[in-house]
Amino acid sequence: MSIEEYSAPESEKEFITCGTYLNCYCPQCNINFNQGESAFFNFVSPNGKFGELKLSPYLCVHTRESTLSIPQGKEIKDMICPHCKKSLIVSDEKCKICGSSVARILIAALTKIVPLYICMKVGCHYHGLSVEDEKIIQLDNSTEW
Fold it and tell me: For residues 105 and 131, what is the distance between their CA atoms, to the nearest angstrom?
């Protein structure tokens, strides 16, 4: 069996619980987005305006602040690294709940950095790992937070 085919038994998977602080990084420049209790990004609003966005770096905590109003149910056009100015939107992935675009950031998990996908639709709380990483890591998807 190759490493690509290996899937750890549920009892051996790394379990990341809701409320866990996630160190978040840019997949292009590897610079940390975290500043204290927020992860900072730039974004393009549904009507094409540029703004700043602060997201909670805690798993399943869906608080956000932005310099522009984003109506519930609207999709952000782009999420951008404030350091290297590159887009974080992934063209070949979609939200597994609502079908909207997703952004990819990196998070520290286990002893490596793994991609975390987050939905760009305001109000959708989807976040997920790649199929490969789901074989060894399980995110707590509780909606109680």
Answer: 15
Q: Tokens 């951008």 map to which residue?
A: 80
Number of H helices, E strands in the chain: 1, 12
Residue that the structure tokens 């939107």 belong to: 89
Point out which residues pair with 116 in neighbouring strands: 105, 129
Q: How far is CA 24 from CA 35, 106, 131, in A?
A: 10, 6, 19
∠61-80-143 over CA atoms, to 5°? Answer: 15
pTM score, whole prediction = 0.77
Other Cβ atoms within 10 Å of 99 Cβ, number: 13
φ/ψ of residue 133, rounded to 5: -75, -25
On the CB side of 93, CA atoms within 13 Å amount to 21
Give the model confidence (pLDDT) of 64-118 as tens digits: 999 999 889 999 999 999 999 999 999 999 999 999 999 999 998 766 788 889 9
C-alpha distances in Å from residue 5, one per residue of 1, 13, 109, 134:
6, 15, 20, 12
Task: Tell me how far apart the alpha carbons of residues 82 and 54 are, in angstroms, rounded to a whole number.
Answer: 11
